[in-house]
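Researcher: Good morning. I'm working through a list of sequences from a screen, and I'd like to move beyond sequence-only analysis. For each chain I'm collecting a predicted structure so we can compare shapes side by side. This is the next one on the list. No need for commentary yet; just the structure.
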Amino acid sequence: MKYLLKFKHSDYSSQQAIILAGWTNQQESGKGKKKKQVFSPVISHWPKEIQTLFKGVATHQQFTGEMGQSLSMTDSRGRHIIAIGMGLRGKCTFEMLRKEGAKLYNALSSQAEKLSIDFDSFVIKNRRDDSLAMLLEGIGMAAYRFNKYKAKAKPPLLTTIYIDSFNPKITKANINSMANTLERTQMIVAAISMTRDLVNEVPNVLNSVTFAKKVDEDIKSLKKGVKVKILDKKGVIKEKMGLFLAVNAGSSHEPRLVHLSYTPKKVTKNTKHIVLVGKGLTFDAGGYSLKPSASMMNMKFDMAGAATVYGAFRAAVQLGVNAKVSCILGMTDNVISNQATLPDSIIKSRNGKTVEILNTDAEGRLVLADLLDYASDLRPDSIIDAATLTGAILVALGGEVCGLFGNNDKLNKQLLSSANSVSEYLWQLPVIDEFCDEIKSNIADLKNMGNSRFGGSGKAAAFLQQFVGNDIPWAHLDIAGIGDSQGHLPYCPKKGSSGLMVRTLVDYLDNV
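Model: Good morning. Structure tokens for this chain:
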């Protein structure tokens, strides 16, 4: 989809639909001093003909600009004009603006080839750039489709969106800033789309080898000088990643470890080094602790952690963040063969600790354990991992909230702040000493399960913590609940990958 910025023009002849925001305004209504909602249009810059028509239709249809209302009309030149009720302007949030952008796209993408958005009417809190970013994020995220396997996929009619501004005080600096905001937003939306594409890809196409190849080709296509290191099975063996290899033992596809490195143009003694780590299980059948067939549905999504941190890394590279960023992805599947790891096995990890494998379906933490130890050798300022790690996080937080665990209050607060700033739900949960005690084994250093199913997410995080280097701030995002879209957000698909947490990580990397 193409976006075009237009300033100080009034020729709508080439657009099929014109969109503006309608706001309510509270006024006193007599002796009781009760408040009533009165429509407050932002149309003074429009031709008189449209202003007169608009006010007349709004009055006739009792349009007050309340949230959920809409108004549609056609002028004498055949131009379609649509007003979207936004409620009280002072109470509108950027998340509401993002959602309205998505609703706008969902409602009109099959109705018009071109849309013209009267951007000035959508500005809130006098923050033009932020308002533009949120509106376009909603539109761009809602426009995502995964239909490559449909024989007759019908493309949306909408191809072009004009962002119109009639502000007489707009300056060249304002225009340049809006253009930069448009470019930045498109980069973030493209990263989210890449994450969704990877997660939605089918498991007979996306395996560890093809996953690594896709990431390699995509990051090199950006031509940003990212260093790429890919370890095959021999490389993983050389790194002594026993846990990673144990998960891969039953697979017909070799494991892959992808290590991406980005260095900003200007590096000083204050430049931070952040490592992102992602679990990339391209399909999880459970190994010999075999899942029931119904539970295998959507297990292609078990690599969403790797796809999420890659999407965030991709956006950070394009945006040119000031931090040094590494991205480490561990790719395999978890299936059965005569070579697959048996329950009750004891495996030696990369950091030397031995692990008793009580359940081969608790495999993601095994892969992450070796990856976290590998990441710790880089001695970064912080490590953040993302994984669809536990079903227990769904029980704790539902399908709308991501679980946060970590060993550093400052890092946790930074991530919570980033999530809040982009309106993604992140909730901190504890890693207590009792969880750490419960994962100790009688016959090995550790075991990959606790003694009961209760507190499963915290116990999994406690296991991961054993493989993070001393004094390195670390955070773990359990995205098992949110990686698969629940259909509750208009800018996420009803089914398939949500792409959530990419924006949180990008905001963190951009501000660290």
